[in-house]
Amino acid sequence: MAQRVAYWFAFEASHFYRLPHLSDDENARQFGKASRHHGHNYRVQVVYSSQPHDPPSYFEQLAQATRQRIDAQFDHRCINLEHPAFQNQLPTTENLALYLWHDLRAGLSAPVAEVSVHESETLSSQYAGEEAINQDGEPRPVVAMTRIYTFSAAHRLYNPQLSEEENCAIYGKCANPYGHGHDYRLEITVKGVPDPVTGMVMNLTELDALVKSEVLTHLDHKFLNEETPPFDQLPPTSENLVAFIVERLRPHLQGGAYLASVRLWETPRSYFEWNAN
Fold this sequence. Notes:
Layout: E1 3-15, H1 24-31, E2 38-50, H2 56-74, E3 77-78, H3 79-82, H4 93-107, E4 112-120, E5 123-127, E6 131-133, E7 139-141, E8 143-155, H5 164-171, E9 180-192, H6 204-219, E10 222-223, H7 224-227, H8 238-249, E11 257-267, E12 270-275
Parallel strand pairs: 1-3, 8-10
Antiparallel strand pairs: 1-2, 2-4, 4-5, 5-8, 6-7, 8-9, 9-11, 11-12
């Protein structure tokens, strides 16, 4: 039976998003602050395929070789200026995940199943070898990009169609008539073929604006039962909140970038998730 083994790696590097055919002002409008030379503490998760007979020492050696290969290429470097693969493409998280997936498989003959590149606490991209055929009949990589948002809200788990006693029996202290609250963590994942020019599945500015207008303005710093329909009639459980978020975002994300998953953390110990597949 096939298994998977995951290791984390890290490197510090700088980069910038600039297209040579655009002016400084146009690059700033396209990429915002990312058009300026800046840096990150990158984290990379590499997932290897494993067989039951593979000894642990094999993956320890493989992880060491992976770390050395990543460090030699990226650690304490300006990716745009010092890495040959990014002379003609932007070092977006999407392009980095794609590059590392292919490079580690070829350079180390490693059974790499998936690579995730985390640029910050709120942005990452994952590639697992998925492809789609474009209109010219050519295979193109399908990459997942995850953006993280936070919002704070109050709610009462209460169904107006039930009695007070029934609500208390079902929801316990969460049925407190004065409500309670959470700092929610929302993970939105979109998938698609990265744009050949920008290297992005979707422009982050556009995604941020969409999530703000369709989701955050309705949920952030609200008493959901009183201020956000349909939760005046529907219990604002995290399951129902996820369905609400999917319903509002999915119609806008059905083209080149489509909504792949929504994960909502109600507390650090519990999350609720919807997946397109």
